Amino acid sequence: MWDAIIIGGGPAGSSTAIKMSQLGRKVLVLEKEKFPRFHVGESLLPYNRTIFDELGVWSKIQSAGFMVKRGAQFWLGDGTKRVRVTFAQGIFTEFPEAFQVERSRFDQILLDHASECGAEVREESTVLTHEVLNDRTRVKYRRADGTEETVEGKFIVDASGLSNMTANAGGQRSYYEEHKKVAIYGHFDNALMPDGDQLGDILIIRRRNSWCWMIPLSATKTSVGLVLDRTDFQAMKLTPEEAFAQAMENTPEMKRRLATATKTMPLHVARDFSYRNATLAAPRIMRVGDSAGFIDPIFSSGVFLAMQSGRDAACVIHEALAKDQPMTSAMKRYEKNVRRRIGIYWEFIENYYTHAFTELFFQPQPGLNLPSSVNAVLAGRTELPWGAWWRLRIFFLLVWLQRRHPIARPFAQSSI
């Protein structure tokens, strides 16, 4: 009888397993893939550091040789304007840097650390069914050799990512209808990226109704992606490879940076990845990471929110086990807190896709030091001090005003 059966060994599942093992609980992780494996979501936030420290994995992350990330650059598609968020310059940002990571290595470090902490990890184990009984849960899975096994535990932690296993089975998944996107991405060698004191910066290139990312993973390797509306992609009537190539050719800043670059892998495609679940905590079930919902990759919040939710879920399950209860008030608070954190980034994401946000963001107004409040959120600070909170409210008020009575000079559509 396991204290928890964790479905999925990505950052959310590993974080849950590590924390529960640290708390003395008996944990089983069922991961369908064989690590290492490719995964997107390669840019971390500075506030990941607090979780790394708590899970005891900071020294391993620090010594892994990942690219240091000190800032983020936002560019207009024609290259005429840019703004840089430098974490060290934010008065509300306590951590000055993060890492850009190849997820194959990063996720392997976390999963290995979970095993070293005492969790049992079974890779190439595909979960087939799950059920919740009065006093336990039951999970049936298939091994790589095709044989099947049934295991039982007090709790199930769904860390299955976009597969969203338990919520899908219960019909709880719903999409953000106005935010259905397609992402096309892959790795490239020898792209033109910042150097000097800006080495390691992530680049976000704003197009008229879409955007591109460029994440430096090493001195030569760069992750490049395109995110666009699903309806726009369908209207193009192109293959993902053709749509990607056309966007790179038609975006001057991307064309310049990829002029001498070579693609090193087939392009990957993700569709309709922005969704939410009706519940995140139910009797004997906790949903963490992308299984708690996913919004958009624009501000690189995915890994941070995943690890944060995994750690927090471990703590509330530990308390529920001590009380021998299938559902507790702490589990309900967990759901409220996860939704609040997602909501902070969702407000940014909804506004980012508007021209008013772009015009104001690329032309910061003097006074009040509003950029520092934006800096704090983009660094991963979700518990904002009063000084950052009221500045953020003013910033979004200005965005609202920009739509009606422009404060900053409007951009020509062709520049975006």
What is the level-2 CATH architecture name of the largest domain?
Answer: 3-Layer(bba) Sandwich
CATH T-level topology of the largest domain: FAD/NAD(P)-binding domain
User: Main beta sheet, described?
Assistant: 8 strands, mixed
Helix content: 25-40%
* Uncertain stretches: none
Distance between the termini: 57 Å
Full CATH superfamily name of the largest domain: FAD/NAD(P)-binding domain
CATH class of the largest domain: Alpha Beta
Shape: globular
Number of domains: 3
Separate helix tally: 13
The structure class reads alpha+beta
Strand content: 15-25%
Number of strands: 21
Summed over residues and divided by their number, the pLDDT gives a mean of: 94
Cα Rg? 22 Å
Features:
eight-stranded mixed beta sheet, 416 residues, D-Amino Acid Oxidase, Chain A, domain 2, globular, alpha+beta, FAD/NAD(P)-binding domain
